Amino acid sequence: MFKVLVSDPISDLGIQQLHDAADIQVDKNTGLSEDELVAIIGDYDALLVRSQTKVTERIMQAGTKLKVIGRAGVGVDNINLEAATHRGIVVINAPDGNTIATCELTFAMMMAVARQIPQAYKKTVSAEWDRKSFVGVELRNKVLGVIGMGRIGSEVAKRAKVFGMEVFGYDPFLTEERAEKLGVKLGTVNEIAAAADFITVHTPLTNETRNILDRPQFELMKKGVRIINCARGGIINEQALVEAIDKGIVAGAAFDVFVEEPPAADHPFLNNPKIIVTPHLGASTVEAQENVAIDVSEEVLHILRNEPFKNAVNMPPVPPVVLNKLQPYFNLGEKLGRFVGQMADGPVSEISINYAGELMDVDTNPLTRYVVKGVLTNHLGHEVNLVNAMHQAKQRDLNVTVQKSSATGSFTNLVTVTLKSKSEERTLAGTLLAGYGERIVRVGQYPVDISPEGTLLLISHNDKPGIIGRVGTLLGSNDVNIASMQVGRKDIGGSAIMILTIDKEASKDVLDQLAKLPEIQNVRELTL
Ligand SMILES: NC(=O)C1=CN([C@@H]2O[C@H](COP(=O)(O)OP(=O)(O)OC[C@H]3O[C@@H](n4cnc5c(N)ncnc54)[C@H](O)[C@@H]3O)[C@@H](O)[C@H]2O)C=CC1
Ligand SMILES: O=C(O)C(=O)COP(=O)(O)O
């Protein structure tokens, strides 16, 4: 039974599939402090949040069973991603479900600021009939600057076109073709600042976007410009905005988000008649909340049940075409890593991987994660997973290098993994054989043909008559059954290896007895 903690108000209808799942127990406990969360999180396999819960390193440290943190929404700035990656906790979000809700709020804010609806409402309900103070501006024929042309920014741009606005967009990933398709002119932040009558931001908050609109940009702006932020507090410098209003540059602003949420009672936005504010309502529609909760619940179920999931925030996405080509190799990659990892004696400084044949022209990065995970599993057990494998390698100064080549011998594909340490190199090669699945085809310098399954004995010996019989007799007399056996040698009478698949693990005592047999150099038991 997996336990899921929902620590922010998330749509019950959206998480119904979690309630319905026989292997899931859902507890809803919202509004908890960090200390309160730390006290209970140790019981849970998954944590579901929106933007209120700050998922700190302390919480993750206490969440020893945590496998996944699900964010029912887009922004994950309330989750310490580095700490999650370090601990191998998958962080997923639900990026698509609230796009329209936030886009529509942005539009509502733009119109509200153009016509001063909240200010007019306030006077009217206090029985003041003031028509003079609220002469607004139209959107038609105005220039809208959109900084951040992702999901929400693009939807805002589309709607602005219908309102007869001219749209300038800035986004490092906005291509000319896409801009043209959307009817958007490309511009830099400063060009947008100088040209726009309305500016709206739709980026995440990053080191680059923090204060992307600051004093120098406000100085460039046309008098009467209106500013909207329904993305993240801090993208626009709050103090600089207030100054620009005081200077008569900015005619009005609409903010749904703040550097600190909720803003302090003396926050300069709260009593400024030119600034309208809402309490982070972008995603707060019935539809969006259901959508994001459904999306995040599905993914959480997949992750808990060890099923393939789409994209994690702390793992690079794998495009479907790449996934289709690579998926059959994942098991081989991990098994090769586990096998070669158990062959190494000293501390390893490099994992060198060569992908050959069919794998030459594929983005093999996702497969590399499996290999590295396999190598590290021997030492780190469940602490390593696909999320943190590369991170764990880096932390241990373990260099991962990848080469591609066309040389596969007689195979159509070949994955060769070499572990290098100061004193030795261990190499293993495997292939995916049509109709036979994964095979290990080379151990060190010896050609072999082994299915990478179960428990194996890897025995280095001198190629002398009678040695195989002695090994068989010793194992048999200790009740260890041999399921299959392979011998690899380069030259008759030279050094050789024997690889046995055994039905149960051999005891330390049996391994010691094997090592003492004449002509045997080394005995290793491997578990795959
Ligand atoms: N107010 C609210 O309740 C909500 C706020 N949001 C916030 O809205 C923002 C946008 O969300 P989406 O459109 O779904 O995200 P998205 O990821 O689809 O779009 C963000 C865009 O920003 C661009 N970007 C990144 N750095 C940039 C830079 N330095 N300059 C210009 N563009 C840059 C990216 O290339 C991307 O295209 C996020 O911060 C999200 O957290 C989202 C939903 C609800
Ligand atoms: O999805 C986002 O990025 C949001 O900002 C929405 O936040 P919320 O889920 O409403 O707390």
Q: How would you describe this protein?
A:
Residues 456-528 form the ACT domain. This is D-3-phosphoglycerate dehydrogenase. Its EC number is 1.1.1.95. Belongs to the D-isomer specific 2-hydroxyacid dehydrogenase family. Helices cover 34% and strands 25% of the residues. It is α/β, with parallel strands linked by helices and 528 residues long. The protein folds into 4 domains: 2-96 and 287-304, 3-Layer(aba) Sandwich (Rossmann fold), CATH 3.40.50.720; 99-277, Rossmann fold (3-Layer(aba) Sandwich); 317-434, 60s Ribosomal Protein L30, Chain: A; 454-528, 2-Layer Sandwich (Alpha-Beta Plaits), CATH 3.30.70. The strands form 4 sheets. Strands 8-7-6-9-10-11-12 form a 7-stranded parallel beta sheet, sandwiched between helices. It has a 6-stranded mixed beta sheet with strand order 14-13-15-16-17-18, with helices on one face. A 5-stranded parallel beta sheet has the order 2-1-3-4-5, with helices on both faces. Helix 3 (57-62) links the parallel strand 3 (46-49) and strand 4 (68-71). Helix 14 (365-380) packs across helix 15 (389-395). The structure holds 1,4-dihydronicotinamide adenine dinucleotide and 2-oxo-3-(phosphonooxy)propanoic acid. The site of 2-oxo-3-(phosphonooxy)propanoic acid (HPV) has 10 residues, from loops.
Estimate the helix proportion, in percent.
25-40%
List cofactors, ions and other ligands: 1,4-dihydronicotinamide adenine dinucleotide, 2-oxo-3-(phosphonooxy)propanoic acid
What gyration radius follows from the Cα positions, in whole Å?
31 Å
- Largest sheet: spatial strand order: 8-7-6-9-10-11-12
